[in-house]
Amino acid sequence: MRDRPDITDESVMMKWMALEFGRMNKGIVTSRRTLAELLAEVAPTAATKGGGEHRFDRRVLAALGEKLPPEMHRRLRLPILFRQDMTVASGVYLTDEAAVTALQMLGELGPLYRMEKGRLWISRPIAYAILLKYPTAVQMMIF
Questions:
Q1: Measured in whole angstroms, how far is the alpha carbon of residue 132 from the centre of its chain?
Q2: pLDDT exceeding 90 applies to what percent of the chain?
Q3: 2, 21, 54, 142: most buried, per Cβ within 10 A?
């Protein structure tokens, strides 16, 4: 049967990869919440794409609350979402200006990091170090 596409056909591979990325992103929060909202809750959570519940670590939220000024509590939406485009081998990007500002206030990003065209690109190792330092408050989305 030659009617089926060849597995090496690029469109078949792209469809398969899209399905896999969808599975990998099931844990991504659908509606990010402000740090102020999360700090006010006893058991802070948010809904995920897969229909589950993302639980925030209260200790991480408390540490962010102590280190960031009150005005940032109202602006910063969590989790901070790094976007990983699989066509770019070495970097990830942020699209949230408040997240960039918060990470600079926390000393995770230097003052020379600037958004261009609505994105701030950083190296993957830096993003993963931030993810490890603030578990549950940072997520990595792959597409």
A1: 12
A2: 75
A3: 54
